[in-house]
Amino acid sequence: MLSVKNVTKKYGRLLANNNVSLEISPGEIAVLLGPNGAGKSTLIKAVCGLLRHEGEITLNSMNNKSLEAKSLLGYVPELPAVYDLLTVSEHLQFILRAYKTEDDGLAEKLLRRFELYDKRDKLAKELSKGMQQKLSICCALVHRPKVVIFDEPMVGLDPHAIKQLKEIFSELKNEGASVLISTHMIDSVEDYWDSVYIMVGGQLRAHRKKSDGDFSLEELFFSVTSEGSVR
Ligand code: ATP
What we know:
Helix content is 31%, strand content 26%.
């Protein structure tokens, strides 16, 4: 369970997140939508413990900055976070060691799914941008996180990787993870979401569950972002 309560973040005078609250239950896929500059990445960085902020964020009732909470978290950042001088395999070994997790074969499975297994001895700096993004996704998942945050995960991925990632969304849901996906590629998540939050100007302007009615994410996005609050 991910819980965000009354999070406010200012960069100097700029209010990037204004009293944001949301909850994502186990087995729920939540989508975070909003125009450029709305504050989505800021919220995600706050959830991942990378920013100072006001308000409270917990993962399974533990403060997000605690080691216990961090061990539950998987994060795919907006730009691939890889270490230039580690090989592909070394990345996954490093993450498993950092999280004190045994390698139960998931590392190899992920590399094969994302067509990186034959690149396992290559340095990250020798990978293409899309390959680095795939490695970043593998790193976020290899320790079997219970709360997984994806910030624009599809950017730069080829169709095969996008297909794998969509299957992974469903698998994470079935395994009871809480999943948050921030994306501008609305079509890519239309079949997978359970709830949607729309952020404009640092505030959540709308929150809907799929069960609330027969509407597409795109319709909701444009109705909220062009008309103002419909909460
Ligand atoms: P995009 O869809 O373009 O990625 P976003 O919704 O993720 O946008 P944020 O990156 O969270 O938006 O930015 C929210 C606001 O905070 C923007 O006005 C941005 O210029 C500002 N901002 C973001 N990071 C910083 C920073 N490190 N210092 C100052 N201002 C920042």
